[in-house]
Amino acid sequence: MSKKRSLKDRIKSLESEKKITCTSSDCKNGLHCFKPDLRKKVNNSAGKCRSCQVDAPFDWERIHKCDSGDIEYIVAALKNELIRKHYWTNEIPEKVQNYARRKGTVKMKEAIEKRIRKYIAPPEGKYDGRQTPGETSNQPNAVHFAQHGTASCCRKCAEYWYGIPRDRHMTEAEIDYLTKLGMRYIGERFPLLTEGGEYIPPIRKKKSKKSEDRSNDD
Ligand SMILES: [Zn+2]
Ligand SMILES: [Zn+2]
What is the tally of structural domains in the chain? Predict the structure, then answer.
């Protein structure tokens, strides 16, 4: 009865949100998912798309060197994966923009390093995969966007992308590498940041403006 209807509505709204997760793919358009499907236990699938089994159109060995001097190649490779590409092209909410602008590049780098050190560098824990808020969560910030864009969101992603085993603590070199990758993301997606940050007033809640286009509201 009414329960059935609400479930149907829920599915409909999920479809319309087109929520992109770390296992989503759009292979027809060259956007894959290279995350290994551990349930399938197919050893030789490593490095291939879990949906269409295509070989990655880049060299994993080269990526696994974690060479920050090779960052352009790595960024181009990341953009072959749907979830990464999404974070390199999605609309950045004003709140997230403002957070980055207030910090500026120097403090942003510190924030990325601090977060990686605290949440990503320790060996994989019980809640791995949930430590980095996504864009649809309540409080995503520019650091989280950068982490999702550069596969430093969790130990599983860092393992298949960069070959960093998830059962050990990251080295200083690895932390530095992931921080630089994050800053490469910030540079591309937040090109107007100043070095020292700037004053941005808080977003004022507009009361009536949005009532015109309610169609997308829940
Ligand atoms: Zn695919
Ligand atoms: Zn991840």
Answer: 1
Q: How much distance in Å is there from the Cα of 30 to the middle of ligand 1? A: 7
- Whether residue 103 lies inside any domain: the answer is yes
pTM of the model: 0.85
In angstroms, the CA 42 to CA 35 distance is 13
Is 17 a member of any domain?
Answer: no
Q: Give the closest ligand to the alpha carbon of residue 57.
A: 1
Give the distance (Å) from ligand 1 centre to CA of residue 53.
6
Is position 106 within any domain? yes
Q: Residue 130: which domain range?
A: 22-201
Average pLDDT, the chain: 89
CA distance 18 to 35: 19
